[in-house]
């Protein structure tokens, strides 16, 4: 990083996609004037980045918030973290593809986009995508409440 900083004369840092998205929105995007910026990213997992007063929020040991493991459906599927009904096991691309494959909506090797595209014609696909949307909405409501914000920005690399 120091070589990049000195050769390009720019600020440089390495972050995960959720933190980078939140920082980008806070500094250059639609959230420029907000004291608190919360950004949810949806991909193979669920990521959350938080910026408070222009500073990226990290956990106690320099980690990022693991909000993908917020439980929104205690009766939901088992997550690899050991809990049931985490947002990640309901709304990530991996979760959508897994559910759609099990339901016969798509075959092996199918994508979350194929599931989304099938929602108009296949009620099983519509139910899977609705479940993902509901899980993300529950997470967004929780994050707004926890961070005393007014809104949450969401970005997706899935649909």
From TrEMBL:
* SUPFAM superfamilies listed in its UniProt record: Actin-like ATPase domain (SSF53067)
Keywords in alphabetical order, please: Kinase, Transferase
Molecular function terms in GO for this entry? N-acylmannosamine kinase activity
Q: Which domain of life is it from?
A: Bacteria
User: What top-level class of enzyme does the UniProt entry assign?
Assistant: transferase
E.C. number(s) listed in UniProt: 2.7.1.60
Write down the Gene3D superfamilies for this protein, in alphabetical order.
3.30.420.40
Q: Which family does it belong to?
A: Belongs to the ROK (NagC/XylR) family.
Protein name as annotated: N-acetylmannosamine kinase
This protein's species is: Mycolicibacterium chlorophenolicum
